[in-house]
Amino acid sequence: MTAALALAGLGDIGLHAHLPALLRNPAVRVAGLVDPDPDRRALAAANGPAYADLAALLDDRTVHGVVLATPPWVTSELIATVTGTGRFVLAEKPVATSTRAASVLRDLPPAHRRRVQVGLTYRHDPALELLREWIADGVLGEPLLVRAHIHDERRDAALPEHTRRIETTLAHGMPVLHEGAHVFDWLAFLLGGPPLSVEDGWSLRTRRDLAAPNQCGARLRYPRGAVALVEFGWLTGALPRCELSFLGDRGHVLLDGRTFAMELHTADGVERVDFEPDRATRCFDRQLTRFVELVTGVREAPEPDLDDGLGALELSERVAGIAEEGARGEGTVSPARKYTGAGRPGARGRTP
Questions:
Q1: Three-state SS letters, the chain
Q2: Are the C-beta atoms of 332 and 201 separated by less than 8 Å?
Q3: Host domain of residue 197
Q4: Per its UniProt entry, which superkingdom is the organism in (predicted)?
């Protein structure tokens, strides 16, 4: 069976990641491309029928599902709209800008929730599967110290439109609200469940004119004694390396945050692992394959599901709140908070 899928949202990730994946997949027919911007529609029009709004496309009963590559401040309502018509949804993370804004999703009937796959795209990477095996097999030892340095979205004078878009996104919350959904999903998947507590947090602005702090971080405690130090940053003229490290008594893994190439250091030496093709291609392709399987009935449940997406959002929001408290305390950190998220990203230990 061929899945007739539409793509709503023709920004960077829509045009350069989701659309190529749709066109590469032989089991997909691109049923429509949606964006209110006529220039963006013109860029993609050769690849399928173009629409200015989603309502017009949903009149076509041959459409099985919609990929939502939309800003998070509109995504939650669109998920409710699309699932209400009986269609399936693959929704980019985060699914909302806050847990309050996501309330419409918590109220979705169970039958609608089962049609929602959340775009925690890099959960599907084989590097994470291998790293989880190493951790579970005790290759690194326990407990683990994890450091996640997630720095992206460089401020580039030659790309003023990109800077404007990221500054607009920052007005809806600190970088952790957008980048944290991925990272906290990875850590829950790798470390056996969501964190037991958020120990403290911090934030700062590198420029006073920014709508919110563009640098923030926290310390979290995970099952089996693991401690994670995470930091997120946007909009500086230069960026440090984007990477994650996992250190135990027996070994150390360094994971390149952009390519997911890994280096495993143990007493036996150094092992480097690379995967082909590039990270975006392999992850968006694997993600879409799982979505097509959901749409066509091969897969019974979405992976990751709406609980995973909401759990990652809630934790990101919790960290942002604690980081903001730390900033108001003039450099002090806020006290530990037990994490009791309703969503459980990775807690069920499922393999992607």
A1: CCEEEEEECCCHHHHHHHHHHHHHCCCEEEEEEECCCHHHHHHHHHHCCEECCHHHHHCCCCCCEEEECCCHHHHHHHHHHHHHCCCEEEEECCCCCCCCCCHHHHCCCHHHHCCEEEECHHHHCHHHHHHHHHHHCCCCCCCCEEEEEEECCCCCCCCHHHHHHHHHHHCCCCCHHHHHHHHHHHHHHHHCCCCCEEEEEEEECCCCCCCCCCEEEEEEECHHHCEEEEEEECCCCCCCCCEEEEECCCEEEEEECCCCCEEEEECCEEEEECCCCCHHHHHHHHHHHHHHHHHCCCCCCCCCCHHHHHHHHHHHHHHHHHHHHHHHCCCCCCCCEECCCCCCCCCCCCCC
A2: no
A3: 124-275+307-338
A4: Bacteria
Q: Write out the chain's pLDDT in tens, 352 residues.
A: 899 999 999 999 999 999 999 999 999 999 999 999 999 999 998 999 999 999 989 999 999 999 999 999 999 999 999 999 999 999 999 899 889 999 999 999 999 999 999 999 999 999 999 999 999 999 999 999 999 999 999 999 999 999 999 999 999 889 998 899 899 999 999 999 999 999 999 999 999 999 999 999 999 999 999 999 999 999 999 999 999 999 999 999 999 999 999 999 999 999 999 999 999 999 999 999 999 999 999 999 999 999 999 998 999 999 999 998 865 654 444 444 555 554 443 333 333 3
Counting the structural domains of the chain, the total is 2
d(CA 142, CA 144): 5
Same domain, residue pair 22 and 39:
yes
CB atoms within 10 A of CB 244: 23
Query: What token pair was written down for 350?
Result: 């499922």
What CATH number is given to the structural domain containing 113? 3.40.50.720
